[in-house]
Amino acid sequence: MTKIIFIEADGTTIEATAKPGMSVMQVAVNAGIAAIAAECGGACACGTCHCYIAEDWFDRLAPAKSDEADMIEFVVDPIPTSRLSCQIEVTPELDGLVIHLPSSQT
Ligand code: FES
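Above: inputs. Below: predicted complex with FE2/S2 (inorganic) cluster.
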């Protein structure tokens, strides 16, 4: 199992376990994290799974593809480490990944 650490805008930390092949969005939804609404179900079409990757993790992820990068331009409060959690696949190498949740989604 891979551990993913979500940090809410108010500092609340939620540790969730994930199986390889899941998306980080699925992990968040399964953990009951309200900040990840995931309205399109992972189709890269809504932006409601927007999250901020911890800086020391950002370069360890596969880069965003063009459709994800295009969608990030439309989310609220994007920053350089913004990603769509539905487009990040869990792998064993991501054990301990830290994800910050935008205050705009609480
Ligand atoms: Fe809609 Fe990720 S769930 S873009």
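The pocket of FE2/S2 (inorganic) cluster is lined by residues 25, 38-40, 42-49, 71, 84, 86 (CB under 6 Å).
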